[in-house]
Amino acid sequence: MIPIGKPIIGKEEIDSVISVLSSGALAQGKFVQEFENILKKYCSRRYAIAVNSGTAALHLSVLALGIKGKAAVPDFTFGATAASVKLSGGEPVFLDVDKKTFNMDPAQLENVIKDVEIAMPVSLFGQPYDVDEINKMCRENGVKIISDNAQSIGAEWNGKRNFGDGISILSFYPTKNITTTEGGAVLTDDKDIAEACMLLRNHGQKERYSYEFPGYNYRMTEVAAVIGLEQLKKLDGFIRARTKNAKILSELIGKYVEIPFVDKHCKHVFNQFTIKTDKRETLIKNLKSNDIGYGIYYPSPLHSQKAFLSKSNCPVTETLCKKVLSLPIHPSVTENDLHKIADVVKKVV
Questions:
Q1: Do 246 and 171 share a structural domain?
Q2: Do residues 79 and 128 both lie within one domain?
Q3: How confident is residue 33, by pLDDT bands cut at 50, 70 and 90?
Q4: What is the three-state SS of the chain?
Q5: I want to staple 272 with a disulfide (CB 3.0 to 4.6 A). Which of 48, 55, 125, 155 is the partner?
Q6: The domain spanning residue 329 has which CATH number?
Q7: At residue 164, does pLDDT exceed 90?
């Protein structure tokens, strides 16, 4: 079986976990702090606040901004982006995406920029959104930015990992480019935002049993942190392997399906290799019969989901949901695997 995703856990991670478990110090402590320090340097940010999931990172970001109004969210993404807004008392406004990058379309944001308090662009599948255009638009209109980079650690826009304005979040779920089993982080250059997130993740406590305001238990464990420390050492190698596999597969199947577009301004880290095809169901059937994994990210627009029902006009998203299909290109995929995947695609198409 060639799985669509596979976390790579080595002896280093296992030994680190055993060491922490043997110590008995399992809750947030020195290893979480060390992980935060290395992470913020890697991402070129002043502060990193480690939490127990990417969803927690999104929720804390919205809460830290103290905004309960409307937030611009891409219609084509994972539900946690919009859920973090609703859970904080806000209202997601769903925007259509660019048909090439699958990311928030700046032209769609411009249509609603006067009505929203937050823009939440997503760097989907490992490719940054149009950072320059969206930052400029939000700056001119006093709109806050939360960059959902859950799938894009290590990605760059114009050579920079720091996208500039606002808050960024990361996820370390097992399917991401590095994992802490579950985990996430808030990244910011704003001291007040960082302090608010640190309080919110720990029950609102500035000191033990001294509550500034009601908070949450969104802390990262020491076990997760030591896994993350070892994974960070390997991240650049993982990205090189994903990029190499994406290039090989693109060359093999580029004549048969629409392969991922890569914006000239960005470094794509290929958390997913997502094609577009009119023969998705037939291709899935053949992938299954050849023990090849796949993913449909995402099968329906967020605005049509029961949790978020709203009247939104997003024709690009509607089309993408019917055509997208993600194929395996993670570091464990071999060149022989890529040729096997390509042969199935060629046969179907």
A1: no
A2: yes
A3: very high
A4: CECCCCCCCCHHHHHHHHHHHHHCCCCCCHHHHHHHHHHHHHCCCCEEEEECCHHHHHHHHHHHHCCCCEEEEECCCCCHHHHHHHHCCCEEEEECECCCCCCECHHHHHHHCCCCCEECCECHHHCCCCHHHHHHHHHHHCCEEEEECCCCCCCEECCECCCCCCEEEEECCCCCCCCCCCCEEEEECCHHHHHHHHHHCECCEEECCEECCCCCECECCHHHHHHHHHHHHHHHHHHHHHHHHHHHHHHHHCCCCECCCCCCCEECCCCCEEEECCCHHHHHHHHHHCCECCECCCCCCHHHCCCCCCCCCCHHHHHHHHHEEEECCCCCCCHHHHHHHHHHHHHHC
A5: 125
A6: 3.90.1150.10
A7: no
